[in-house]
Amino acid sequence: MLFQAYDSHLEQLSAVAERVCRVLREAGIEYRIVGGLAVLFHVSSRDPLAARLTKDVDLAVDRADVPRIASAVRSLGLEYRHVAGVDMLVDAKTPKARSGIHLLFAGERVRPNDLEPVPSLAEPTVGDAGVLLVSPAELVRMKLISYRQRDKTHIIDMDSVGLITPEIEAALSEPLRERLQLVRAEEALATGSE
Predict the structure, then answer these.
(1) What does the alpha-carbon distance between residue 114 and residue 142 come to, in Å, rounded to a whole number?
(2) What is the DSSP code string of 5-69?
(3) Chain centroid to CA 38: how far?
(4) What is residue 2's predicted lDDT score, i.e. its pLDDT?
(5) How many separate domains does the chain show?
(6) Is residue 81 part of a domain?
(7) What strands, in cross-sheet order, belong to the sheet with 78-83?
(8) Could you report the per-residue pLDDT of 63-90, keeping only the tens digit for each?
């Protein structure tokens, strides 16, 4: 039963992401899948058994495209909402913030005290069904900027399958490189490995 629920949620999440991305692509709107779903796709491309499920879809877009995005997703029964400082696409019939598609804006900080802004929409990685993912390098940056417990877990997952290369690490700003080392040290302490 648990495995069926996991598989069902993953299928639903992937289907929603694919539909939204297809509509955005057809409308000529740039986007990148970011967040936990991007981690899941990147990690599963290396080791499907190491990938963790996430609860929602996060998209990086250009803020100037919000009116076009709102118009494009109406055909899917979605509508744009800005609630409590969060921009999202929700089911027009049963709008729930938890199950919405969260929008992050390229070149802007998610929170005012973030070390760096969301990356630009350059250098995508093409995932399954032709969806555009943020590159592993930019995803690592975003996770280290956000730096919540779930972001640290995502960093560990990406690191465990070799997605955080020496080149990616070297390109990080010093504060983000320090955070990466802290995550690795915490993981080594927790697992008893050095």
Answers:
(1) 10
(2) HHHHHHHHHHHHHHHHHHHHHHTT--EEEEHHHHHHHHHHHH-GGG----SSEEEEE-GGGHHHH
(3) 5
(4) 46
(5) 1
(6) yes
(7) 78-83, 86-91, 101-105, 57-61, 31-34, 132-133, 125-126
(8) 999 999 999 999 999 999 988 788 999 8
